[in-house]
Design brief:
The chain has 5 helices and 5 strands, in the order ααααββββαβ. With 164 residues, it is of the alpha+beta class.
Length: 164
């Protein structure tokens, strides 16, 4: 997500409404003139956060909103289907990416408690050699699917699929 898109999303969805919100989400940011309209303060603080790679607290606070409202789309998703005596069950996980100027913040979100998805999955510098986050996500999905290494992938009619 580009900086201008992010500012528009923040304003359109009232993700920051007060100076207290700014102070809570951007601890290192200093408001120079508190008499400015909140829309100007939002422009300034989001721009500052983006340029200074200080969006982690902001994203942490608003991840669910951004994902659940389709503002950020998954890079890849995983669906695991298990055949049980009570019928089929499924787990779904998605890998999402948020950005600042120099970093990518990856988040896994799912509908199962089989994988602890609290917090960020990875935070990677954009010019880093670590480019295998999607492969790593697939490997971890396979590991969860195999019940953490307990079962083979072809044990029964269960299946795992990845899609974008």
């Amino acid at each position: 997500m580009k900086l201008n898109e992010l500012i528009k999303i923040v304003k359109d969805n009232n993700l920051i409404e007060t100076i207290s919100d700014i102070e809570f989400l951007f601890l290192d940011y200093s408001i120079k003139d508190e008499t400015q309209p909140i829309s100007i303060l939002i422009d300034n603080v989001i721009s500052w956060g983006y340029e200074n790679d200080d969006l982690k607290d902001f994203y942490s606070e608003h991840l669910d909103f951004l994902i659940d409202n389709g503002i950020v789309s998954p890079l890849i998703e995983c669906k695991m289907t298990y055949q049980t005596s009570m019928g089929p069950l499924s787990d779904n996980f998605g890998l999402f990416c948020f950005e600042s100027k120099n970093y990518k913040y990856y988040k896994v979100k799912g509908d199962s408690d089989r994988w602890d998805t609290y917090g960020f999955y990875e935070i990677v510098k954009k010019n880093s050699r670590k480019t295998d986050v999607i492969s790593q996500f697939k490997d971890e999905c396979d590991y969860v699917f195999s019940n953490f290494g307990e079962f083979d992938d072809d044990e029964d009619d269960s299946e795992i699929e990845f899609y974008t």
